[in-house]
């Protein structure tokens, strides 16, 4: 898992005899460059020069740079720019190498080149051995845990791994035109579960592990490792729970404010004897994400040192220097590298004199009844348990021009605080692809991309995971119950119970501190929210043809308004204790960080309750025109109005009434298409441009969606009444429904624009491409909001075609039931189709577009039938 350059440096260091004074990193780089990347030759040269003089100056890097023309010198400076303004730009590599140097060497140097050395060197601190867990916790972001596994399991696992290690490989990679190898053996394992969901794409991520090359699927955890892993997970989670510091980009699942750590992959190393070592490095973050927690189990070898050294940020180099901490790791110990360790420290297993053999405390299981002997061993086995995050799966990782996933590294030398620290994506192909990579380099947008990646996991949790999956069926159920209650108890009590219940459950949701309580209260809120479709029933009953266009448009206005202000309230008022400490830094708000937004939402619902109580009159059997004796035309069953008004219709009868079946099917299709569009639009926007998306950050997507909310509100308020008055409702409905396939079809065009306008060298987009992309997004979202108007028209059509006024509530309920039903599984369908297209589909990454377009076209069949039937009926009446 080590970074190629760092490991190479470490390899050289580990090849030097212990008697040689360890040279500086620059000196090793220098030797490597002179030896054209041959680690063994570099070590040899260093050893030879160390014996000649210990005053040797590291001239290689500087002299290597000197022949560059003046104009290029600035460009040849280290790839990491330090000013915030420049930080979003990719590094400028030395584009032309001196005549005598190969292009590969130039790139290599550009990557290796460190910041200019500080003028003064602060006092060097001698290495410090951290002899006990307390010292370790004080000096490093690590904790040490001794005797973690039952002794018998520790020995069993040790035997399994040493046996398996016979087939393991040395870590190999390309440098210039030759292959270099690390001395120790290494292997990779993936657990059969990722600990979170059934999504198996993380297994694929694990396959990229071997130095950027797609490898065979990794081995599954052997049973002993699985047993050990469960114990390790418990220790890690207990330890995480004790830590008060949480990092913004640290993994956080939906269960609460503390990260719940899972081990779903493991890298294992076998060091045969004291010479085999691994040099200072920090682990790649590609699939672990920022601030990972890594748990490293040591087995065998009586004691082996684990060294940690802080990377001092450049701006502090003058004032303090790094100290090396040595942590002796005994057999059966666990060192947990907590969040920020990979960002701040490098770690290594330095070479060590082979002084002792490990004598297992338990023998191998006796084979054929014969008791096996206790075999001493000079091996040390290390298993690093890691958690591949669901928001860092292949679909979200940018690919470089070589077509493989880029790797994520922290900018260790320019750390300030968590807010402005940076990570970057770079090409990793060079390590395997015969030394030929590309210059792909992209700063990870901490605020945007970080949130965006988190949003991916949120989407997963919301749409695929437990909470939403439970809430929607409850709404479907509640929908049916509501409509049974409507006719029995009347509209008013149902609305009051709904809004009142919503107020109470939302408040309780804000007060829940456990996952189960949150799910229960949210599910109950879903139960009470089902009555949203009772309102159209009331509107149908109190409005007539003269005012319904306005009433329904006005009613439709509030959904988008809710969509705008809901997330706003959540965003502005969650965690108020840390956000607005001057007002809310109270124990209560620290304990219930989501209470405030829930309270505000609950207050709105409570206001709704009061308004209903004071102003809403019962509307059951209160149709104004019918009350005045003038019959209103309902569907064909209304041919005998006076009889049918009084009679109750069965569900079967209602479904068999002309147009109603089509309205149910079409309502289902509408809800399926529109919900899928919302999910796919977000997934599309934040997937990387190379993977067919737009690489937008969460905040940008949020902006686009809230702008769309405003568009919807404006359309409802200003255009809808006129449209409804002027045009035939069935035709308007059909028009809206026909838009869906085109909306899906249009999305990939945005990617084509973004792709054409983005430089493969720098990853920057041209202003023309940005403008065109935004124009495209605006058009698509506007049209989508027009298509959303179909919801309002659907209700009017139900009103028009309900078999009779007494069946109106039941008919609306039936159609709403189908609308809710589609909403229950459309998000899952959309997400799965998207992930399938990105990962597995033989038809390519836009398979989801083809599927949704076809479904869109197919579903407009129902609205076409509605147009035809409505024409027939209007000729009859
Ligand atoms: O062997 C060890 O303890 C450390 C191994 C390591 O750092 C790695 O595999 O990345
Ligand atoms: Fe490591």
From TrEMBL:
Gene3D superfamilies: Alpha-ketoglutarate-dependent dioxygenase AlkB-like (2.60.120.590), MFS general substrate transporter like domains (1.20.1250.20). GO terms for biological process: DNA alkylation repair. SUPFAM superfamilies: Clavaminate synthase-like, MFS general substrate transporter. Residues 50-105 are annotated as: Disordered. Residues 262-389 form the Fe2OG dioxygenase domain. It is a multi-pass membrane protein. GO terms for cellular component: membrane. Signal peptide: none annotated. Pfam families: 2OG-FeII_Oxy_2, MFS_1. Keywords: Membrane, Transmembrane, Transmembrane helix. The chain crosses the membrane at residues 462-486, 493-511, 517-539, 551-574, 594-616, 668-689, 695-719, 739-757, 769-793, 805-826, 846-867. It is found in: Membrane. Its main location: membrane. Residues 379-868 form the Major facilitator superfamily (MFS) profile domain. GO terms for molecular function: dioxygenase activity; transmembrane transporter activity. This is Fe2OG dioxygenase domain-containing protein.
């Amino acid at each position: 898992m080590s970074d190629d350059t760092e490991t190479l440096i470490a390899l050289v260091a580990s090849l030097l005899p212990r008697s040689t004074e360890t040279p500086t990193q620059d000196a090793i780089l220098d030797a490597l460059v002179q030896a054209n990347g041959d680690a063994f030759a570099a070590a040899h040269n260093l050893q030879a020069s160390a014996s000649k003089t210990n005053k040797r100056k590291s001239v290689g890097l500087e002299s290597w740079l000197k022949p560059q023309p003046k104009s290029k010198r600035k460009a040849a400076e280290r790839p990491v720019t330090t000013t915030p303004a420049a930080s979003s730009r990719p590094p400028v590599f030395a584009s032309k190498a001196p005549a005598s140097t190969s292009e590969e060497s130039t790139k290599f140097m550009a990557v290796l080149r460190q910041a200019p050395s500080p003028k003064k060197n602060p006092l060097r601190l001698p290495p410090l051995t951290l002899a006990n867990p307390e010292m370790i916790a004080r000096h490093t972001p690590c904790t040490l845990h001794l005797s973690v596994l039952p002794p018998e399991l520790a020995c069993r696992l040790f035997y399994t791994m040493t046996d398996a290690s016979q087939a393991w490989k040395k870590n190999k990679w390309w440098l210039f035109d030759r292959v270099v190898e690390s001395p120790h053996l290494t292997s990779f394992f993936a657990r059969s579960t990722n600990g979170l969901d059934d999504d198996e794409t993380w297994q694929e991520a694990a396959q990229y592990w071997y130095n950027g090359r797609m490898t065979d699927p990794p081995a599954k955890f052997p049973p002993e490792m699985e047993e050990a892993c469960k114990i390790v997970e418990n220790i890690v989670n207990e330890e995480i729970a004790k830590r008060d510091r949480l990092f913004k980009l640290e993994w956080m699942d939906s269960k609460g404010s503390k990260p719940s750590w899972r081990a779903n992959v493991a890298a294992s190393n076998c060091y045969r004897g004291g010479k085999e070592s691994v040099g200072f490095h920090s682990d790649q973050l590609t699939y672990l994400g920022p601030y990972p927690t890594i748990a490293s189990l040591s087995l065998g070898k009586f004691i082996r040192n684990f060294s940690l050294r802080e990377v001092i940020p450049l701006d502090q180099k003058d004032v303090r220097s790094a100290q090396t901490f040595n942590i002796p790791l005994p057999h059966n110990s666990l060192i947990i590298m907590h969040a920020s360790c990979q960002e701040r420290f490098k770690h290594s297993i330095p070479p060590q004199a082979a002084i002792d053999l490990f004598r297992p405390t338990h023998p191998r299981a006796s084979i054929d009844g014969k008791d096996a002997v206790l075999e001493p061993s000079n091996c040390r086995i290390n298993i690093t348990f890691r958690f591949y995050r669901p928001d860092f799966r292949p679909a979200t990782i940018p690919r470089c021009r070589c077509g493989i996933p880029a790797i994520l590294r922290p900018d260790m030398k320019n750390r300030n605080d968590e807010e402005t620290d940076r990570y970057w994506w770079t090409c990793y192909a060079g390590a395997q692809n015969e030394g030929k990579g590309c210059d792909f380099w992209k700063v990870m947008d901490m605020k945007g991309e970080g949130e965006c990646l988190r949003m991916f996991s949120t989407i997963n949790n919301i749409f695929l995971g437990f909470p939403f999956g439970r809430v929607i069926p409850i709404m479907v159920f509640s929908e049916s119950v509501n409509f049974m209650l409507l006719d029995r108890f009347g509209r008013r009590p149902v609305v009051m119970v709904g809004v009142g219940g919503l107020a109470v459950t939302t408040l309780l949701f804000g007060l829940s501190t456990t996952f189960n309580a949150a799910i229960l209260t949210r599910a109950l809120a879903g139960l009470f929210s089902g009555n949203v479709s009772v309102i159209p029933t009331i509107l149908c009953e109190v409005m007539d043809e003269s005012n319904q266009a306005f009433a329904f448009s006005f009613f439709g206005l509030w959904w988008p308004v809710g969509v705008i202000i809901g997330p706003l309230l959540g965003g502005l008022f969650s965690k108020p204790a840390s956000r607005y400490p001057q007002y809310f830094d109270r124990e209560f708000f620290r304990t219930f960080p989501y209470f405030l937004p829930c309270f505000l939402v609950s207050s709105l619902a409570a206001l709704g309750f009061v308004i209903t109580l004071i102003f809403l009159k019962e509307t059951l059997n209160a149709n104004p025109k019918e009350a005045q004796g003038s019959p209103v035309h309902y569907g064909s069953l209304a041919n005998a109005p006076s009889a049918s008004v009084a009679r109750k219709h069965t569900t079967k009868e209602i479904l068999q009434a002309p147009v109603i079946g089509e309205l149910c099917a079409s309502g289902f299709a509408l809800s399926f298409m529109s919900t899928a569009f919302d999910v796919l639009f977000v997934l599309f926007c934040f997937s990387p441009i190379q993977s067919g998306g737009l690489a937008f950050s969460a905040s940008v997507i949020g902006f686009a969606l809230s702008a769309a909310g405003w568009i919807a509100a404006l359309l409802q308020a200003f255009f809808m009444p006129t449209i409804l008055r002027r045009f035939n409702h069935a035709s308007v409905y059909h028009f809206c429904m026909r838009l869906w396939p085109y909306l899906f079809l249009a999305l990939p065009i945005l990617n084509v624009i973004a792709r054409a306008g983005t430089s493969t060298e720098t990853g920057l987009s041209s202003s023309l491409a940005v403008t065109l992309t935004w124009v495209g997004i605006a058009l698509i979202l506007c049209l989508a909001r027009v298509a959303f108007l179909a919801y309002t028209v659907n209700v009017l059509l139900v009103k028009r075609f309900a078999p009779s006024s007494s069946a109106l509530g039941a008919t609306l309920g039936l159609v709403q039931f189908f609308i809710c039903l589609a909403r229950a599984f459309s998000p899952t369908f959309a997400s799965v189709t998207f992930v399938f297209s990105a990962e597995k589909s033989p038809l390519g990454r836009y398979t989801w577009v083809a599927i949704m377009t076809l479904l869109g076209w197919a579903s407009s069949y129902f609205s076409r039938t509605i147009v035809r039937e409505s024409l027939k009926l209007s000729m009859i009446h």
